[in-house]
UniProtKB/TrEMBL annotation:
Protein name: LuxR C-terminal-related transcriptional regulator
InterPro entries cross-referenced by the UniProt entry: Sig_transdc_resp-reg_C-effctor (IPR016032), TPR-like_helical_dom_sf (IPR011990), Tscrpt_reg_LuxR_C (IPR000792), WH-like_DNA-bd_sf (IPR036388)
Pfam families: GerE
PROSITE patterns attached to this UniProt entry: HTH_LUXR_1, HTH_LUXR_2
Species of the source: Halomonas kalidii
Amino acid sequence: MMTTDALHPGRVAFQRRAWADAYAELSGAARGTTLALDDLERLAIAAYLVGKDAESNDLWARTHQDALAAGDLARAARCAFWLGFGLLMSGEKARGGAWVARAGRLIDEEGLDCVEGGYVRIPAALGSLGAGDHVGAHALFRQAGELGRRFGDPNLVAMSCLGQGQALIGSGKIQAGATLLDEAMVAMDAGELSPLVAGIVYCGVIETCQQIFDLRRAQEWTAALTRWCESQPELVPYRGRCLVHRAELMLLHGSWPDAQQEAEKACHRLCNRPGEAATGYAFYLCGELHRLRGEWREAERAYAQASRWGHAQQPGLALLRLAQGKVDAAEAAIRRILGEASGESSRAAILPAYIEIMLAVEDMSAAQAGADELAEMAERLNAPFLRALAAGARGAIRLAEGDPRAALGSLRQACRLWEDLEVPYELARIRGLIGRACERLGDADSARMEFDTARWYLRELGASPELSRLPAHACGGTAPHRHGLTPRELQVLRLIASGKTNKAIARELGVSERTIDRHVGNILAKLNVPSRTAATAYACQHQLI
C-alpha cells in the first residue's frame, strides 16, 4: 500500500476539484502498487471527469472486485452501479444493464440494508419514465429518495427529487413537478452533491424546463450550470451540454454570433464523446442559426450532421424549404412529422412551423387547428413562451383571412409577451405583422413605425430572409432585392417565369384560379412592376428564380 504522504497530493487535488491534477497524482501513485478502496474510487471518478471513460470503467470494475475480496459488499454494489449507470448514459444498454443488475442482485442476495439499494432503483425508474409509466416511475423515485434520506445521502435525494419532478410533469402536474425540480437544485446550490450527480441533476433539470417551455427556470439554471463548469476548468463530461444549453438561450435572446460560437464549440467537444445525445442537437442549433441568417448551404450541412448524430432534421429543414420557395416539400415534410409526433413537448416544438407552412399553402383550417392545440398546451403548461406563439399564430391567421382589426388584438398580446421574454426575432416578426395589419386598415404612419422597428431588430440580428419580406416602401432606400414576397408568392412567381398561365398554376397548386389572380396582383404590387413579363425579368435579375 502507498504511504499517506505519497497519496496526499492526489487527495488534496480531488478535494479542491482539480480533476486533472487528481487523476495525474492518483494514477501516478497507483503504478506498481495497490491503492486503498477509497483512493481507487477517487481515481475512477477523476478519470471520468477528465474524459477518460474507458479507464474509468476499468477502475470501477477493479474497485468492485477488490471490495468483494475485502468483504465490503455495499461498496462493491456501489461500484457496480456507477459502472453500469455510466455505461447506460453512454448508450451501452446491455453492458450497463448487466452491471446495474449485478449491483441489485448482490444487495438482494446478501440482504443488505444500504443506500445503494436506492441507487439501483434509479435506472428502473428512468425506464418507466421513458415508457410513459409516470405513476410507476414516481413510486420508484420516491422509494429511492426515502432510502437516501434514511441514510443521509444528499446525492440520492437530489436524483429522487429530479425524477419525481419529471414524473409529475409527465402526468400533467406541472407546478408540483417544477417545485421538486427546484428542490433538487437546492442541494446543488448548497454544494452538497458529488460532481458525478451534480452534472446529472443540472442537465436533467434544464432539459425538463425546456420540455415544458419554462424559459425563466431554464435560463436561471443554465447560468448556474455555466458557473459550476467554469469553477472546474478541467471538467469534460458536462461542458459540452452546458454549451448547448447556452447556445439555445443565446439564440432565443438574439445573441446569434455568440450562440453560433457556443454551438460550434459544443459540436467539437461532444463529437469526442460517443453516445452523447446532445451532439445531434448541437448541430441542429447550428443549422437553425444558418437558416435564420439565410445561409442555406451551411444550414443543409448542419441539419445533415444533426441527422447523422441521431437528431431529427425537422422542423428546421421544412422551414428551410419554405424559405427557399420549395413550398410543396415543406408542406409534405411538416404534415408527416406532425402526424408522427405524439408527445406534448415534441408536438409543441413542431406546431409553430406547421402553422407557418399551413398559412403559406393557405390551408386555414389546418393552421387554425394547430393554433388551437398550441393555445391549449400554453394554458395547461402555464407557459408564457407557448402563449406568445399561440397569440402570434391567431393574429397571423386572422390577418391571412382578411380581418386585420381582429388580428391586431392577438398580435399586440404576442408583442407584449415576446417583449417580456426578451426574444427579439419573434418580436420583430410580430411587429412586421402588426405593420401589415395597420397598413390594411389605412394607418400608414403606424405601419411605417412598426416596419421600421421590425427592420431594426432584424438588421441587428442579421436575419436577412425575414428582413427581405418586409415591404420596401417602409425603409426609404431599401435595396431592391428586398421584395417582401411570401413563400407562396415566390412559388407562384417561379411558375409564372416558367411560362404557365394562371389556370395552369391553379391546377398545379390545387387552389382556385381566383386565388392565383390575387397572388399575381400582390406580386406585381410588391415588386412595383406593370406586368408578368416585367415580374419575370425582376425575378431573374435579383436571383429569385
